[in-house]
Amino acid sequence: MAEPHMAADVTEDRSCHQLAKMFENCLSRAKKTTLHCSSVLVPEKLTRRIAREVLWLASCEPCGLRGCVLYIHLELEKGWKQLERIAYDASVVPTFELTLVFKQDGSAWPSLRDFLFMGSCFGPSFRNVLKLSPGFRLVKKKLYSSSAGTVIEGWLRSNASCTNSL
């Protein structure tokens, strides 16, 4: 009897992994086109946490994630930059929108681990590295409902200096 439950867990885990990879690919594309930086440092498991929240918000929608249009932004010191607009399944009429806002890490100095990862403490690429905060903002707007949007603020509670580079 546990097999259908396990199959659902595997499917959800696969969807979560695919979404996390989609966010990572978006950041990777944006570093070249929109952000004009050489590297984006992402806190460990941030994209996976965001993917879980997105799946949870999509779970009560008639078309699920397939009915989602996702707007991805980066909050900078001087406002926001739109990174990408993604229709999860372009063949489905959207039933809701999600706005994801990554936040830039406001700390003055990257950690020693980040320096070592970049390969050089004071190389020319140092100024072109963008470090994301473990926090994010996720806002849901239903397109066919008068109900107000849902806002989720996310913060990574573990060691924020653990980063992955994109």
TrEMBL record:
Subcellular location: Cytoplasm
Keywords (A to Z) from UniProt: Cytoplasm
UniProt-listed Pfam families: RTP801_C
Signal peptide segment: none
KW Cytoplasm (keyword) present: yes
KW Cytoplasm (keyword) present: yes
Cited function: Inhibits cell growth by regulating the TOR signaling pathway upstream of the TSC1-TSC2 complex and downstream of AKT1.
Entry similarity comment: Belongs to the DDIT4 family.
PANTHER family on file: DNA DAMAGE-INDUCIBLE TRANSCRIPT 4-LIKE PROTEIN, DNA-DAMAGE-INDUCIBLE TRANSCRIPT 4 PROTEIN DDIT4
Protein name (record): DNA damage-inducible transcript 4-like protein
Biological source species: Goodea atripinnis
